[in-house]
Write a structure and sequence with these properties.
Blueprint: E1 3-8, H1 17-22, H2 30-49, E2 54-57, H3 73-83, E3 88-91, E4 94-95, H4 101-114, E5 121-124, H5 129-135, H6 150-171, E6 177-178, E7 183-184, H7 198-204, E8 233-237, H8 241-250, E9 253-256, H9 260-276, E10 288-295, H10 299-316, H11 324-330, H12 342-347, E11 351-354, H13 356-369, E12 374-379, H14 386-405
Parallel strand pairs: 1-2, 1-12, 2-3, 4-5, 5-8, 8-9, 9-10, 10-11, 10-12
Antiparallel strand pairs: 6-7
Helix pairs in contact: 2-14, 3-4, 4-6, 8-9, 13-14
């Protein structure tokens, strides 16, 4: 069975560019944010009622323009968890190249307990320099474009080390770690001295936490997760084969923000790397495909919805991050209309337009290439109204998902290492 995840990219709504300019910086408009926050939760509660498997928030900072406003996914997750009963709640994800891994391990373990295991955790590398470089400045982080540059290599190194620390913190009674960026405990070489409670920690704390001279030699990160050994882990991947292979080697779930042909190529590489690490996944299993389907009574109406709900953010935001060749071909300027952008958006491979049967056929064609276990559906609420998002989700669950379920006949497999 395909597991459907709804991913919200919260957008403070404006009817036009002029209104967004007049409300600048709209991202600090507390009335609009409060309204968006409450409606956001209404969507998640409805997703819970109609049987959607998961809901995820993102981590993006400083969006004064009012786009993708979700700077603290953990707090949002806790709010959603308190309002729901069955749906799994997570992130896609914590940007680990600019994060403190100990704090991420603690926060996600608490979230796992609050929801009694209805959780998953997502990690990403960070592609927006405005905030990735600022929040990661003490680590030397630079935002990545997955271009194998020196900055990209550094980002990957910082990311993978941070994820490794999180995994250790989740699964080991106490941890130590020594690298250029992280010393655990601090300082590492001689141990941390001056911990007033050391005699009691030696008696009551983790084994080996305190050395023979009362110095801290290890750190015990508490609590451990509710889910053993830890919640399922997702890793975002746009155009990086190495990230896909990294996910496979660790049994993580790659989320493909990519065109169909790229996804088809990623799948076998993931399975091979996972098999080398001892995971026996079937084709498509433990993998996720990301799409932005807009379902309406006709394809023409769906294209209008893309223009209305997604055109502004694409013009102002997404197109800036497209590959240079695609940007030059699109040639977006001040006078470009949102209707002009519908084809370029669909050409990214992420946006989809059509009536129910057309969308179903497009998904089935993709699933015949890679019968993914998960599908992540992205919506730009509240630029797209709440009622429209909910209607789209219901149509997907009723009319599209059953056709995909028929293509995902593989055995259940625990998607974390035992």
């Amino acid at each position: 069975m395909v597991k459907v995840i709804v991913q919200m990219y919260p957008v403070l709504p404006a009817s036009s560019e002029e209104e967004r300019i007049n409300l600048r910086p709209i991202g600090r408009n507390s009335e609009l944010y409060q309204k968006t926050l409450r409606g956001w939760c209404d969507i998640i509660e409805e997703a819970d009622r109609i049987g959607i498997w998961g809901a995820t928030a993102i981590e993006h900072h400083f969006h004064s323009e009012g786009y993708e406003m979700s700077p603290n996914p953990g707090v949002i997750n806790a709010f959603w968890g308190a309002k729901t009963s069955n749906i799994n709640i997570g992130q896609l994800g914590y940007v680990m190249s600019a994060a403190n891994p100990i704090r991420v391990a603690e926060e996600t373990a608490i979230l796992d307990h609050l929801m009694e295991g209805r959780t998953f955790v997502g990690f990403s590398r960070g592609f927006q320099s405005r905030w990735t470089d600022l929040l990661g400045q003490h680590l030397g982080t630079k935002a990545t474009r997955s271009d194998d540059s020196s900055d990209d290599e550094l980002n990957r190194e910082i990311f993978e080390e941070a994820v490794n620390i999180v995994l250790k913190a989740w699964t080991e009674e106490s941890i130590e770690h020594n690298s250029e960026r992280w010393q655990i405990p601090f300082p590492y070489k001689d141990g941390h001295r001056g911990w007033e409670m050391a005699p009691w920690t030696k008696k009551l704390g983790a084994h080996g936490e305190v050395g023979s001279e009362g110095e801290l030699r290890r750190i015990s990160v508490v609590p451990s997760p509710y889910t053993k050994p830890h919640p399922p882990v997702f890793v975002a991947s746009n155009a990086s084969q190495r990230t896909v292979e990294y996910a496979g080697s660790n049994g993580f779930i790659p989320a493909y923000f990519s065109k169909s042909d790229t996804v088809a190529n990623f799948g076998p590489s993931y399975i091979q790397k996972a098999r080398e690490a001892g995971y026996n996944f079937a084709p498509g299993q433990n993998q996720a495909i990301v799409r932005m389907p807009r379902i309406a009574d006709s394809c023409a109406e769906a294209r209008e919805h893309i223009a209305s709900y997604d055109g502004m953010i694409f013009k102002h935001f997404y197109q800036s991050f497209l590959p240079i060749a695609m940007r030059e071909k699109t040639n977006i300027n001040e006078n470009t209309t949102y209707n002009d952008l519908v084809d370029p958006m669909i050409n990214t491979g992420l946006f989809m337009a059509g009536n129910t049967s057309e969308i179903r056929d497009q998904f089935v064609a993709q699933w015949k290439h890679l019968p993914a276990e998960y599908v992540i559906l992205i919506y730009h609420y509240a630029q797209q109204p709440k009622e429209s998002v909910i209607k789209n989700l219901k149509l997907f669950m009723e009319e599209v998902k059953p056709a995909l379920d028929e293509l995902t006949d593989y055995p259940e497999y625990r998607n974390v290492a035992e």
